[in-house]
Specification:
Elements lengths: L4 H21 L2 H7 E11 L2 E6 H9 L4 H4 L3 E11 L2 E10 L2 E12 L2 E11 L3
Parallel strand pairs: 1-6
Antiparallel strand pairs: 1-2, 3-4, 4-5, 5-6
Helix pairs in contact: 1-2
């Protein structure tokens, strides 16, 4: 399965259909399709440490104005995906509001489906 084109396409679809769209629309049901229930989120935003459980993250998404409803720019870009057997890492960029996030997303193939099991993110200068 190492770097199999079919696996890369499956992860790309999960990112585009559920991760980016879920963030853009503020749709926690879409995000739940790609984020494993035990996923943890770590990083920094504007230099401040960031650590959340999946429930905390989804609550924040649900209670903020979505980028779609704000009318502000949103762009999700896949920088790279690396697959080895049943694990993968995706590097993505999410531009929303005044933030430019660089994310490292750890994937695991569970029950024949790729899901994010860990998210590391940081806010970078444009």
């Amino acid at each position: 399965m190492e770097n199999n084109q079919q696996e890369l396409l499956a992860i790309t679809e999960m990112l585009e259909k559920y991760y980016f769209k879920g963030i853009y629309e503020g749709d926690v049901d879409k995000l739940k399709q790609v984020l494993n229930p035990g996923a943890l989120l770590f990083g920094d935003v504007k230099g401040q440490a960031y650590a959340k459980t999946l429930d905390q993250y989804l609550d924040a998404v649900q209670h903020r104005q979505s980028p779609k409803d704000s009318g502000k720019l949103f762009k999700g870009t896949i920088t790279s995906i690396h697959v080895i057997n049943s694990i993968a890492i995706a590097r993505v960029r999410v531009k929303m509001y005044e933030f430019n996030y660089e994310d490292f997303l750890s994937f695991h193939k569970l029950d024949n489906r790729w899901v994010i099991v860990n998210k590391m993110m940081t806010d970078i200068a444009d």
